[in-house]
Amino acid sequence: AQSVAQPEDQVNVAEGNPLTVKCTYSVSGNPYLFWYVQYPNRGLQFLLKYITGDNLVKGSYGFEAEFNKSQTSFHLKKPSALVSDSALYFCAVRVITGAGSYQLTFGKGTKLSVIP
Amino acid sequence: DAGVIQSPRHEVTEMGQEVTLRCKPISGHDYLFWYRQTMMRGLELLIYFNNNVPIDDSGMPEDRFSAKMPNASFSTLKIQPSEPRDSAVYFCASSLFWASQPYNEQFFGPGTRLTVL
Q1: How far is A40 from chain B (nearest CA, A)?
Q2: Residues B59, B44 contacting (CB under 8 angstroms)
Q3: Which tens digits make up the pLDDT trace of A52-91?
Q4: What order of strands is seen across the sheet that includes strand B65-71?
Q5: HEC states along B1-12?
Q6: Residues of A in contact with B103 (CB under 8 A)
Q7: DSSP of B48-102
Q8: How near does any CA of chain B get to the CA of A101, in Å?
Q9: Contacts of A90 in chain B (CB under 8 A)
Q10: What is the mean pLDDT of residues A14-31?
């Protein structure tokens, strides 16, 4: 089965420091990977996606993600964390079903807290 | 575009009552997803539609849950009868899936927070 795993329930980082939110994947074939962010009392918002090409993907709000095929990872990164980055982050993988339709399978989510 | 629209934003009801959640997807999108989010279980996919046709409802927890999509611009998720354990935030999401670019992201609505007393 195709899936993603987010090994950390919570990540704490000081404001101004670099942040990393981890995600590993398990897929057959080429992986199509996504990161979403959820702010309190809001729906999920798309941040970035990896399809093919450069292993470093740039997205919204200064976030980027590094795709590593050998380590089957797709970690979310930001060089300098802001307090406003505090939110819940979800990694997801696209799954094509036997019927030819598609869905996204989401990880459990990682709560990021940026400390002033 | 206004994005995915959900109503109501909050619903408080008593056990045994019928609850109907509504969703208007982004115009032109051909996929619609219903999710449920709780602290205990995280984000769960309940059911999704492609061109108004239900594709996979294996995530629907019980027969008390049903979903319809009568046209491309409207979907409902109904719970009858409701129970306290149904309390959660329910999200609707839509996307456009092209065979030549099969990696379009999903756009989520703001969610409906359901509380069943």
Answers
A1: 11
A2: yes
A3: 788 999 999 999 999 999 999 999 999 999 999 999 999 9
A4: B5-7, B19-24, B74-79, B65-71
A5: CCCCEEECCEEE
A6: 32, 49, 51, 94
A7: EEETTEEEE-TT--STTEEEEEEETTEEEEEESS--GGG-EEEEEEEE--BTTB-
A8: 8
A9: 43
A10: 93
